[in-house]
Design a protein that fits this description.
The chain is an alpha/beta fold. The chain has 11 helices and 15 strands. Helix 2 packs across helix 3.
Length: 256
């Protein structure tokens, strides 16, 4: 069983839980055409990640899962920290830059600090498009693909192909988890793949990541830490973790 199939199966379980609130082992066995033991192992793994609670015959979702899905549910989470991070990140964007802007609530907040800059933006995020659409100095290229309504962004093979058509000066990306050992990780495989592709097509990559995500792995590891050159975070991250990131050759910027 490949890691990709395993990750895809877990992603589907999370989506079903988010939509329905609960899911049975029997349904999952039929959905994936796998054994009872395989489903049970998947549920045990997701319970350890605090994404669900196992019950007799299946699982129910947790509040943690509710917070993982949906742009509108994530936009106000740790808002003050995200604003400080974005103000700091905007200092690295200059007139004339071509910039990838990733999807997600943190990256959306970056828009408010770069509206007056003469820059070119490439993004798959509909909120980013909406926020910068009428900024007179900003030129926007919107990436196509399959639009995921809850995430308000486009993902998939089409999106990846279009990213590869650009060569940007900088990429400003997000993540759901960051550790020195495993690098960057996401709850959603498609989201992680888009972020990874942006890193590969940029001259310099800046990871915007509040401290609640540092030192934790999500279930889909999509890029090593070496894929980024800068990490911008808030003062809540431990000194030990920050030191570990810096020792890996990454510049760490703590937003005050």
């Amino acid at each position: 069983m490949t890691q990709q199939l395993y990750s895809s199966r877990k992603e589907t379980i999370l989506q079903l839980l988010n939509e329905q609130g609960s899911v049975s082992i029997e349904v999952l066995m039929k959905t994936f055409n796998v054994s009872h033991m395989t489903v049970r192992r998947d549920l045990e793994m997701l319970e350890r990640e605090h994404c669900l609670i196992r019950v007799h015959g299946g699982a129910v979702k947790t509040e943690n899962l509710v917070n993982q899905f949906g742009f509108s549910q994530r936009i106000d989470k740790t808002a003050d920290e995200k604003d400080r991070i974005c103000r700091k990140a905007a200092e690295f964007i200059h007139d004339g830059d071509s910039v990838f802007i990733d999807c997600g609530s943190t990256l959306f907040r970056l828009c408010g600090y770069i509206k007056e800059k003469k820059i070119r933006i490439i993004t798959a995020s509909l909120p980013v498009l909406s926020e910068l659409l009428y900024a007179p100095a900003v030129s926007i290229s919107l990436l196509g693909g399959k639009v995921i309504p809850d995430r308000r962004a486009s993902y998939g093979p089409c999106t990846i192909r279009q990213i590869k058509e650009f060569a940007a000066d900088k990429a400003f990306i997000g993540t759901d988890g960051l550790t020195v050992k495993n690098g960057l990780s996401a709850y959603d495989t498609q989201e992680g793949d888009v972020t990874s592709a942006m890193c590969a097509q940029s001259g310099e990559t800046f990871l915007l990541c509040d401290s609640s995500k540092i030192g934790k792995d999500s279930f889909y590891i999509f890029s090593p830490l070496s894929a980024v050159q800068h990490v911008i975070t808030d003062c809540g991250a431990s000194a030990e973790t920050i030191d570990g990131i810096a020792k890996a050759g990454i510049k760490v910027h703590v937003a005050e």
